[in-house]
Design goal:
heterodimer, A: four-stranded antiparallel sheet, about 50% strand, globular, B: about 110 residues, six-stranded mixed sheet, five-stranded antiparallel sheet, 11 strands, about 0% helix, about 60% strand
């Protein structure tokens, strides 16, 4: 049972480059989320999805886009990376909105 | 605006030395308060959900309690493997999102 899998685990980008982070879950969860974690600031929600084909903005959506074409996958895109997007990104999923989340192991992104 | 603060920021204990971590919150209609454990380089791991004041949950050496303004995570006779960052989060009745606190970094020394 893999749970939530994130790829890649590490990435270094140059300012202005683009990339996509992939999140896959095998628990048939409806809800999926992308968070970023920065020192001293806690986890902040970027975007989320309440089901296949749906996405919505979270607390810090600027500079990011997402897609959920399949129920098990949730993609996070950076179109033009900026140093302020240096962070650790976590994907999470849940069966209902009242459940605790299952998190992936994270992607450490550095933008230089 | 919903807010969560946690104290202390960091805590060092000797093995067997019991203590408590605090999570204070303000939320527009509490739908649930959640505790997570996060090990270095890993994602948070769900521990407990508390829904109403007076509720308590236990798991091994951990016990979580909830009042109308705060939650405590009590750690009884901790072991070095309890060393981790403990995160608190709240969900309100209106949104899809948790609001996370910054966490308490716990170190248990042998």
């Amino acid at each position: 049972n893999a749970g939530v899998t994130q790829t890649p685990k590490f990435r270094v980008l140059k300012t202005g480059q683009s990339m996509t982070l992939l999140c896959a879950q095998d628990m048939n969860h409806e809800y999926m989320y992308w968070y970023r974690q920065d020192p001293g600031m806690g986890l902040r929600l970027i975007h989320y999805s309440v089901g296949e084909g749906t996405t919505a903005k979270g607390e810090v959506p600027d500079g990011y886009n997402v897609s959920r074409l399949k129920k098990q996958n949730f993609l996070l895109g950076l179109e033009s990376a900026a140093p302020s997007q240096t962070s650790v990104y976590f994907c999470a999923s849940s069966y209902t909105t009242g459940d605790g989340y299952t998190f992936g192991s994270g992607t450490r992104l550095t933008v230089v | 605006e919903d807010q969560v603060t946690q104290s202390p920021e960091a805590l060092r204990l000797q093995e067997g030395e019991s203590s408590s971590l605090n999570c204070s919150y303000t939320v527009s209609g509490l739908r649930g308060l959640f505790w997570y454990r996060q090990d270095p380089g890993k994602g948070p791991e769900f521990l407990f959900t508390l829904y109403s004041a007076g509720e308590e949950k236990e798991k091994e050496r951990l016990k979580a309690t909830l009042t109308k303004k705060e939650s405590f995570l009590h750690i009884t006779a901790p072991k070095p493997e309890d060393s981790a960052t403990y995160l608190c989060a709240v969900r309100n009745n209106y949104g899809q999102n948790f609001v996370f606190g910054p966490g308490t970094r716990l170190s248990v020394l042998p």
